[in-house]
Amino acid sequence: MLHLCACSCQFPSVTKGLEVENARIIPQSKLPFPKTVSLIERQKTNDNILTRHKVSERYIIAASSRQCEISSNDGLWMQLNAFYQFSRPHTIFGTIIGISSVSILPIKSLADISPTFFVGLLKALIPSLLMNLYVVGLNQLFDVEIDKVNKPSLPLASGEISMKRAMIIVITSVLMSFGMGIKFQSPPLLVALIVSFLLGSAYSIELPFLRWKRNAALAAICIMVVRAIVVQFAFFAHIQKYLLARPILYTRSLVFAVTFMCIFTAVIALFKDIPDVNGDRNFGIQSFSVSLGQQRLKNDIDRKK
């Protein structure tokens, strides 16, 4: 007997599974500690079920609720891992590297590198990371159906995180970000947060004149303005004026950084949607990959190299 059922075991990362008598098919990616789960007739059952119902080999047959032995520590780890994946780690790392690197440009001597400098850097990083969480979380909320096609392993698309919890995370992060931005009394920092909020919202929200990700040019502009222009100028000014207490003088190194990031973000805008062409096409997202075709886009980029 094979049917869909609500998951009743203590798997915080699984909301629905396929039940086969006393077993469920669970994605292996949802089991950071597979040894804690008893497998049921692995050799005899798995092959038959996976073949008969065309289930990917990434799925395994795991014990039902009365046979699961998952500790509370494991459950907590799985929830933290789901939150980590929801935050889109590559964007987190990109934000940290981008802000940290441009914050070094105003430094003129080793004397400028002090505890005060690192405190000022943290004041820039923390609200920016919270705003980044808002932007990527909002995008997942409005893209959940697309992600079920393009990125089914994402926590919201896979059911590891509920829509309600995701909305709480998104709202909390944006409120905390703006609260810190106002409290730290740095106009360049606050401007960067406001622009990121506006463009991030326009990129994802499904409203008239919004949902800019549908248009390849507007989507690229959103990425370029935030990553290549706002981050560079705003955080350079934050460090130079409101931390080092110097007049704002834009240097050649800053101009070079902006130019480099404009080129870099343009490449990102071209490449980032290549794996997502199927879902984007189905849901009317006219990315560069959908408009030009995956292979043609790859060939054009290779020729430019």
Describe the structure.
The chain is globular and about 50 Å long. With 305 residues, it is an alpha+beta fold. The protein has a four-stranded antiparallel sheet, covered by helices on one side. It has 13 helices and four strands.
Summarize the structure.
β2 and β3 form a beta hairpin. The protein has 13 helices and 4 strands. The chain has 305 residues and is of the alpha+beta class.
Key features of this structure:
305 residues, alpha+beta
Average predicted confidence as pLDDT? 77
The outline comes out as globular
- DSSP strand tally: 4
Class by helix and strand content?
A: alpha+beta
Strand order of the largest sheet: 1-2-3-4
How is the main sheet built? Answer: 4 strands, antiparallel
The helicity comes to 55-70%
Number of helical segments with 4 or more residues: 13
What value does the Rg take, in angstroms? 23 Å
Distance separating the two termini: 55 Å
**Element order, helices and strands?**
EEEHEHHHHHHHHHHHH
How is the quaternary structure best described? single chain
Amount of beta strand: 5-15%
* Poorly predicted sequence stretches spanning 5 or more consecutive residues: 1-26, 28-70
